[in-house]
Amino acid sequence: MRKWKTLAFAFLGVFIAATIRAQNTTGVNNAELKGDYAFTFNGMTTGGGGGSTPFAAVGRFTSDGAGNLTNGVLDTNGVGVPEKLIDQTFTGTYSIGADNRGVMNLNIPGGGKLAFVMMANGTAKFVEIDASGGNGTVGSGSMEKADITAYNTAKIVGDYAFGVAGLDLSNNRTAIAGRMTANGAGTFTSGAADANQSGTFTTLNLFASSYLVTDNNSGRGMLNLPPLAGGIPQNLNFVFYVVNSGKIFAMESDAPTPATPLLNGAFLQQQIPLGGFSNASLNGGMVMYLTGRVGSGCGNNTGASPNVLAGLLTGNATGGLTLTYDQNCGGAATTVTSLAGTSTVDGNGRTAIRLGTSYLVAYLVNSNQAFFVVPDSSVLFGFGDPQATTPFTNSAVNGTYAGLATVPATLGVTIFSGEFTANGASPTGTISGSEDIGAPSGPSLGVAFNATYSVSSSPTNGRGTMAVSSGSGGSAVVYVISPSKFVVLSLSDPNPAVLMFEH
Q: Three-class SS of residue 39?
């Protein structure tokens, strides 16, 4: 998704073509990707030397189910003119193999190549595979079925929770979570938000903002937020693409500076119960998964390091909570069990959570579902999904899954998408598959993955362990959300990410 030197691009094209043939990606499953899609992408651009700058993209396209993309429009943002495309139209081609993995070529200035994997609901998870020789863009994203009847300002109406995060020009991290009410005529009111900018935490209430779907053919629009984070002197301007009336993908369109982060994320329509949210909205389990970035000196790394966390937050509907979580900061793993705490839930969904000496804020989308932002120095930010109300053992992880390394925080993260099969056997299950990896040194497609796992319903429902025998190997922890979705967190990788697996 960025401009390339002609020679490098030509070489990469030959390499990818050869790799596709080797994978036998013949297009036998092209019909799996059919219809209108919106997409979002989080990544980094490197020019060699080990450094990186932030990069993001949002857009939409139509797929004909036969290997062709039309009606494509995208916006990208990064550092410098080559990284910024505004309302850029495109076409493209793709090919999906028998194992539901595919390669996509976007016809945009400089070219863009993606490796992706299809899910049963038509959603695709993808990584960029443009980089070569230490130069290019790496990252991961999601393509989701879009409802073109929602390409109208009037369709964006009601209450929305939102979460956006990203890096500034100095690679300092900012995250904002909040909520607003859309009137269907271009105005957001009743705004509330919490922002963490490089460790400076700010809470704001009762602000207004504006939005507008500017193109009813593409679902592209513009959104403006007032200053929400300390140190940002100007408003936050976003371009967005409609997924449906309950969801939009949004990316900041302001140029990144040492004070202005490149934020990317989503707005989700809140399902507010009659009378408003309350502590009763936290009743049962919620699997949360958060990502942060430490500037230096974390775990086994002396430089910038990912700080990732996954856990099960359980509420009792009256303000009592317990949290069991696993955290990996630069290879230093921590496990905390049954940490007791309390919650205070406002009617608009803003939730203050205190666990031991820790404090975090959530904005509820629905019961047991929320955006999270933490006032820590690594700016932990992420999401929580409601855990299905059933005891989980190995049999819950069974079948074919699409996997993705989500929101990579540093260049050292192994950024992959892939197809995986778990057998659900007890007491030890096996999972195997193929990964497509995008790295600064160049792509590696069809890399074999093998691991064993064991999931228990007690003492923490759906928490399990995984032992990876392929690649560099290592230990990991599993949190099951439902039989169709689970997250994995490496405990030994010095450059970890939250790994998401979905049927």
A: strand
